[in-house]
C-alpha cells in the first residue's frame, strides 16, 4: 500500500511541475543549439598515413625481425614526429604564427594496431591549413628521420587532401542538443522534486493526517459568492415549488 501511494505521489509531483520540466528541457536544448551553431568555432580534420618499413641499416639494433620490436620503433617515431626537432621545421616552412606548443596540440599521431602504419591527424579551423600541416609534418619527418636515427625506412602512403565541401568534426550540434535535452530534463525533474520537498504547506486532508497523525473527522469547504447565489436561487425555486404544490 505504501509503495502504491508513493508512486502516485511521484507522478502527481511530475504532473504538477510539468511546466518546469518542459521549460528546463527546452531552454537547455535551445542554448546548446545556439552555442553549437553560432558560438563555437568549427574544427576540421585532415589525415595522412606513413609506412614504417624494416630498417635498412646493417646495425643490429635496426634489424627488426619481430612485431614487438617494430611496434617499439613505431612508438619512438610517434614521439619524434611531435618533437621540436620536427615541429620547428614545419613551423618555419609554413610560416605559422603560433608556438610549438600550440602546433603540438593540433597534431595527433597514432599507429594502427599490430601494423607498421602511422596516422598523422591534424585539427584546425581552416581545412586547408589542417591538410598543409599534416602533409608538411609527414614530409619533414621522412626527410629528417634519416639524420636523427640514420635510417631511411619511412614512406608516405596517402597525403592529406581537402574535400570540395569539408565537414567539421566538431562541434556536433545534434549530439550536443541531444545531451542538453537529457540534462535539461533531468535537471527539471530534480528541481521539481526539490521544490516539492521544500514546500511544507498544508493543502488537503491527507497532509493534515500526515502532520498530526490523527484521523480527519470533517472538512469545511470554501463557498464563493457565485455558489451562494446559485444555492439561494435553488432554495427559492424549491420554496415556490412547494407553495404551488400545496
From TrEMBL:
Primary localization class, coarse: membrane
Residues annotated as domain Tyrosine-protein kinase G-rich: 139-194
One GO MF term: protein tyrosine kinase activity
The entry's keywords: Cell membrane, Kinase, Membrane, Transferase, Transmembrane, Transmembrane helix
Location in the cell: Cell membrane
Membrane topology term: Multi-pass membrane protein
Superkingdom: Bacteria
GO CC term (a single one): plasma membrane
Transmembrane segments: 18-40, 174-195
Record-annotated Polysaccharide chain length determinant N-terminal domain positions: 3-94
Cross-referenced InterPro entries: Bact_polysacc_biosynth/exp (IPR050445), GNVR (IPR032807), LPS_length_determ_N (IPR003856)
Name the UniProt record assigns to this protein: Tyrosine-protein kinase transmembrane modulator EpsC
Amino acid at each position: 500500500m505504501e509503495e502504491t501511494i508513493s508512486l502516485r505521489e511521484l507522478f502527481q509531483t511530475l504532473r504538477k511541475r510539468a511546466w518546469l520540466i518542459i521549460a528546463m528541457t527546452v531552454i537547455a536544448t535551445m542554448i546548446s543549439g545556439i552555442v553549437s551553431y553560432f558560438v563555437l568555432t568549427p574544427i576540421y580534420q585532415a589525415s595522412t598515413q606513413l609506412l614504417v618499413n624494416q630498417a635498412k641499416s646493417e646495425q643490429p639494433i635496426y634489424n627488426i625481425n619481430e612485431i614487438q620490436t617494430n611496434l617499439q620503433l613505431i612508438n619512438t617515431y610517434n614521439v619524434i614526429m611531435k618533437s621540436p626537432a620536427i615541429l620547428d621545421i614545419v613551423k618555419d616552412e609554413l610560416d605559422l604564427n603560433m608556438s610549438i606548443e600550440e602546433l603540438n596540440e593540433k597534431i595527433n599521431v597514432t599507429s594502427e594496431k599490430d601494423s607498421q602504419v602511422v596516422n598523422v591527424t591534424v585539427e584546425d579551423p581552416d581545412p586547408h591549413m589542417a591538410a598543409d600541416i599534416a602533409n608538411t609534418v609527414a614530409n619533414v619527418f621522412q626527410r629528417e628521420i634519416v639524420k636523427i636515427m640514420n635510417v631511411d625506412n619511412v614512406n608516405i602512403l596517402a597525403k592529406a587532401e581537402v574535400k570540395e565541401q569539408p565537414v567539421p568534426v566538431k562541434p556536433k550540434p545534434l549530439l550536443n542538443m541531444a545531451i542538453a535535452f537529457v540534462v535539461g530534463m533531468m535537471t527539471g525533474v530534480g528541481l521539481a522534486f526539490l521544490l516539492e520537498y521544500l514546500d511544507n504547506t498544508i493543502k488537503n486532508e491527507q497532509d493534515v493526517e500526515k502532520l498530526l497523525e490523527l484521523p480527519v473527522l470533517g472538512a469545511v469547504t470554501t463557498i464563493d459568492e457565485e455558489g451562494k447565489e446559485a444555492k439561494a436561487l435553488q432554495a427559492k425555486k424549491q420554496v415556490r415549488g412547494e407553495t404551488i404544490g400545496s
